[in-house]
Every structure is written in C-alpha cells, then in structure tokens.
Write a structure and sequence with these properties.
CATH architecture of one domain: 2-Layer Sandwich
Helix content: 25-40%
Distance between the termini: 114 Å
Strand content: 15-25%
Mean pLDDT: 79
Radius of gyration: 35 Å
Number of helices: 4
C-alpha cells in the first residue's frame, strides 16, 4: 500500500484551473476592427448632410452646347460684384495678382468666367481684361444651356 502523503492532496486543491482562455491578439484586433467599421459607417451616413460652401449664381441662358476642358480655372462673379477665385473672395486688385500667379503656374489653362445674369457688363469686362493682362491665354464665359424644345410627332 502507498503511504499517505498529505501534501499531494493539498497541492491538487491549491492548483488554479482557469475556466476561460486568455484573450489573444486576434480578439483584441477584432475589437479595433469593429470600432473602426462603426466609425466609418457613421461618417458615411452623415456625410451627405454636410453643407459645402458656395455661392449662388444664376447663369444666363444660351444656345451654345460646348463644354469646358478638364482642369480649367473658374472665376465666379456674384450679383454684388464680388470676385471668387480659388475659394477666396477677392477685390479687383487681388484678382489681378491671383490671376498672374495662376497664369505662371498653369500655362495653358483656360479661365471660365461664371457671372450672374444681373452683373453689370462692365464688371465682366474688367475681369476679362484682368485675365488677359495677367497672361491667361484663353477666356470663356459660362452659360446655362436653355432647354431644347421637343418635337411632337
């Protein structure tokens, strides 16, 4: 018969047996992935409601059906006679300096002038002349295409 060892039984009772496995790297990374996907879903859901800054311009109608080239510079003139170029509101002197700078950086770019239909003709001509004096090679005026009349058979 084996001799009785009192320490053997006490060692078995004192040994801790975990009931759960420790969290691994995969479990921690999965939590971060869940949080980032939730944040991405939130930003995608909210992004259409963010208002982009802009100005309202009612372009005059025209029969011209051409279009602007990609990479054109756009100058907007509001009813109040303000010039907007490269997301900045400029006066006539500031416009001339900015156009000179852009004409050097973008040598063959076309300038498109978007002027409200109620802007005085002289204001548009001042902008046109400032662009030509700055060295812009080609200037166009933006218009809204009038609706074509449908022929009924």
């Amino acid at each position: 018969m084996k001799p009785f060892d009192p320490h053997k039984k006490s060692q078995a009772l004192r040994r801790f047996k975990p009931t759960r496995k420790p969290a691994g790297v995969f479990t921690i990374a999965l939590g971060f992935c869940d949080a980032s996907l939730l944040a991405l879903a939130f930003f995608l859901a909210v992004s259409p409601f963010v208002m982009q800054p802009g100005i309202n311009i009612a372009l005059p109608e025209s029969q011209f059906t051409g279009g602007a080239r990609f990479g054109s510079m756009v100058l907007s003139i509001t009813r109040g006679g303000w010039f907007y170029f490269n997301n900045e509101r400029l006066d006539e002197a500031g416009l001339r300096a900015e156009l000179e700078e852009q004409a050097v950086l973008r040598k063959n770019a076309v300038l498109i002038i978007e002027a409200d239909e109620r802007v005085a003709h002289g204001t548009v001509v001042k902008a046109w002349n400032a662009a030509l004096e700055a060295g812009v090679k080609e200037v166009s005026i933006a218009t809204r295409i009038s609706a074509l009349e449908e022929e009924t058979p």
